[in-house]
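Two proteins were folded this term; both appear here.
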Amino acid sequence: MKLISSVLGIVLIFKCSLLVRCQDVSSEEQNLEDILKKFKPCSIGYCVPSNQCLNGVVNTDGENIVELRINDYDDMIEVEIEPQADDSCDFLTTCCALKEGLQRGPPQQADTGTANVEPVDLPPPSCGTNRPNGYVYRVKNDSIAQFGEFPWMAALLQRKQLLDKETLQYFCGGSLIHPQVVLTAAHCVAELSGLLENLVVRLGEWDTVTENEPIIHQEYGIKKMIIHENYVDRKFHNDLALLIMEEAAELNIHINTICLPSVDDNFDDQRCLTSGWGKEDFNPNGKFSEILKRVELPVIPRNQCKQMLKATKLGLFFQLHKSFMCAGGEAGVDSCKGDGGSPLACKRDNQFVQAGVVAWGIGCGEADVPAAYVNVANFVDWISVKLLGEGI
């Protein structure tokens, strides 16, 4: 009798399991249909994150998304910056159907499509390490940063009211030199020292107009601003500031610190990288970049830079202050307005160190006219003293 009861129990459990499973499947499909409204329609379905579309059909079982613990550079999705003429989808999205033969279909999850690719890599083991080949996507454009290529890059944002709506407006760049500290230019923040509650540090940002990145960015408030005591407005001498965030950042594939140089580091004639969301068109009407820029520049020796700058409207009497270094001078390649505070990163023993901070220039992208960067090596002791004073 007990055996019969047990068998009946097993059968009932099995039938219930089948019923539940069928109900779950139906419910899941209904949920997918409900999510449909959140995504832009296109010819065969909906614009979903490119990595979630497999052979034109939404990838609901994780094929090619779940990550084995092997080299992941071989499975990158190559993407173009400009959409194809016959494709109405935005950058990093593609037109995809829910099922084969269906004309409309939403993607797998109800959120922005950025958090579904869970990072399995541990946070980088040390400062100055990055992903130069990207993560999930590889952009086929050398002037655009790969996702995770500049994990130390910080976007400085200010809360403002626009038509009775609160917005976050980008105004400068910065770099993460400690999980709780951002280094930037004093000229970016000097007039905002009394408005800390309106300032936001965004880390892990890449495409500023969408949230289709493989991993979502993080935002932090600022509890203290430290501007160099000898900063000189309009001349921009000692143009350096530290922003102490309210809490430490969570390091990840797309968020990591950059190393600081030693006091005697010299980067003359080395080709280094700067990044930012500043103007990408070097003219008065140029627009700001939506996707993080990547700019490779040569570091110009000091005496050579002084002579090059004297040949501009600065004139023969110009003296380059000791707090500056120079980089650039190549036609059409430069940091520009909006890039202030962003880092100039140079390679040292397979790690990047921050050689400079974007400060000022004469125009943008002109041949034989380098730009001035704060020479970070001159300030490493100052940075150490200030952070020790904050208990960091």
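Next, the second protein.
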Amino acid sequence: MLRRFLDYSFRFVEKDKFKKFFPVVDALDTFCYEPTHPCSSPPFIRDSVDVKRWMIIVVFALMPAIFMAVWNSGLQQVVYLSKSANLMQEFILSSKTFWGAFSFALHQGIFLKIILKGLQLFIPLVAITYIVGGTCEVLFAIKRKHKIAEGLLVTGILYPLTLPPTIPYWMAALGIIFGVVFAKEVFGGTGMNVLNPALSARAFLFFTFPGRMTGDVWVGGDPSSVKNSLHIMNTDAHKAIFDGFSQATCLQTLSSTSSLIKRIHVDTIATNIMETSSVPTIEFIKEKFALWSENHPGAVLGKLSITQLQEFLSTPLSEGGLGMLSSQFDSAYAATDLIYGTGKFSSSSLFWGNILGAFGETSTFACLLGALLLIITRIASWRTMLSCVLGAFLTAWLFKLGSILFFDGYGAWAPAKFFIPAYRHLFMGGLAFGFIFMATDPVSSPSMKLGKWLYGAFIGFLTVFIRLINPAYPEGVMLAILLGNVFAPLFDHYAIRRYRKRT
């Protein structure tokens, strides 16, 4: 029946009056069946996988990330709007493992509620992206009288996964219009774009509406209701601001960590939280504490009250304290969680994705499942992925090593944010999602093997460099990939020159 309908539609659009709608019918036919028209120009490849099926495989690879987007956004909304401190505390403790979060949902009887809330947040954005973006593609195809490409099939999924759950619908529509029109169609359409369309759309929203793309925007629904719920939770739990529940993501915490907060400050807080003397700067802490405790009899390092801890950190160096500004205490306390994973930013939570963030970026595990399919099917380059990871890891490690070498006391007085373990950078923010699904875009990335290695290393280096050096921009993945897209032809140029010299 579908075949007969499409055949009738083809006969209908063959008429001169309706010929301009041929691209629409042709797109429907190629989406439902294999293309009927042979290639008219080289290169000719005998393969059962055409562009449409290539795009569908990418969508399949995104399924784990899509599932986690629905699950996590729904879970965070239910918990953050519950106004229950006990529920929030139980969620934080249980979400350190993947199955722990599921057990928590089943135990509380909110499993179906989580799924429904997640679908209500994510599905409308996907629908808006396909409808608005598809309309732009159709209009350009009709005007130019060429076939509708399958590029939007992947862009329409990637773009919503980069957005925060609270993004207004009209803003999401405006972003995809910019991505399709100005990042792709003005260059000639699919296969001709210089920049990744989905990332370009997100970058447009980020720089045009920064208030809607950063800050406390990571829990779906009404942000003001979430703030009210958190206020009730913290009041009921009798928690101070620095030790309470908040909407801050790990990258927001990183960006708010001032260079005035040193490693020794964070290590002192970690010693008090974890009640251990294994932090690297413990000898320097003990040396200062011995002098400070002379005026505070009964104080025991590692078992200080919050008041004592704050006083020890903010006392001037000459008096045995650590010389930190008292106003920086809250930020230093949060940075301790970022570096040591003492709270909601544990390594397992970052890896499994039970944290706040954009829809698709939270779960490194889900992204790795997608990477496995892309590598097996050879849709995406493993060289690009691996070089991105190596570039980011080595850059973070060099920041830490340099801080140890150039600052006294095993880096005790170096900025604390330089000591985030290199492996934790790989789990933070959209790094895994960007490296696997965005950086590997075959159109905007290099085609030569050496070019892929240089391209990936450049993106990995720039991502961590922006994160640690630029306090105004918490996430470096987006800009790093877009700059990598711009330099991709240059990387290929030098790769080809080297190849010619060898031959």
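Residues 111-144 form the longest helix (34 residues). The chain has a mean pLDDT of 84. These notes refer to the second protein only.
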